[in-house]
């Protein structure tokens, strides 16, 4: 039996430890391999204070979830149930799908799946004096809460999980150093990019910055530009299929 043919090109994923499977499957559909550089892992919070904060957040007329990880962590603490007249919102389709799997059928999310897109949704336009539950991680979606509070919302924040920094895995660093095939970086978190660059040796940081970047939002495209990446392509959103669609506009022939 012969050896499998190696991929013609690669994408680099900075998602949390254990969170690369969907992106790996999407990459495989386009003939690409995936190299995982996880700078952190997800740790769910399970204490009385978090449970109280979540209970209060879920009782608000408007409830916002910032990520699938927030949905998973909240659902582990208590069943998610929509109350009469409540509005449930998310930043993107992936988080909305996670809520639907937990039994929340009516979930709104923006076409532009980022913080700016969420803030443009009609339910968040006139919210002075309204209570709003915000289910997230510490420092999650930094733009949202200050903007919502500036609009007069009374934000009840529930931080249901944490991102714990971890050392980049030695096999992943070795694979990056030895990579000969064309590759591009898929970027869906500015914090992950900062954490990865802070851990890379100078030669590997230079190597990474020579790769094109597929950014999930305009904000992340600006972050990549500020971090020294010369070529940035904007995806339609953060979902694996959207990132890979944008990556394919570059393709192995266009990656140096």
Q: Outline the biggest β-sheet.
A: 5 strands, parallel
Q: Reading side by side through the largest sheet, how are the strands ordered? A: 2-1-10-11-12
Per DSSP E runs of 2 or more residues, the count of β-strands stands at 12
CATH class annotation of the largest domain: Alpha Beta
CATH topology of the largest domain: Rossmann fold
Mean pLDDT across residues: 92
Q: Strand-residue fraction?
A: 15-25%
Order of SSEs: EHEEHEHEHEHEHEEHEHHEHEH
Structural account:
With 256 residues, this protein is of the alpha/beta class. The chain folds into 2 domains: 9-39 and 166-254, Rossmann fold (3-Layer(aba) Sandwich); 43-163, Rossmann fold (3-Layer(aba) Sandwich), CATH 3.40.50.10090. The protein contains 11 helices and 12 strands. The chain has helices spanning 21-29, 48-58, 68-77, 93-101, 115-119, 144-150, 170-178, 190-199, 202-209, 218-226, 240-254; strands at residues 9-13, 32-36, 40-44, 62-65, 87-90, 107-108, 131-136, 154-159, 161-165, 183-187, 213-215, 232-234. It has a 5-stranded parallel beta sheet, with helices on both faces. Helix 3 (68-77) links the parallel strand 4 and strand 5 (87-90). The longest helix has 15 residues, at 240-254. The chain is elongated, with a radius of gyration of 19 Å. The two termini are 32 Å apart. The model has no long low-confidence stretch (mean pLDDT 92).
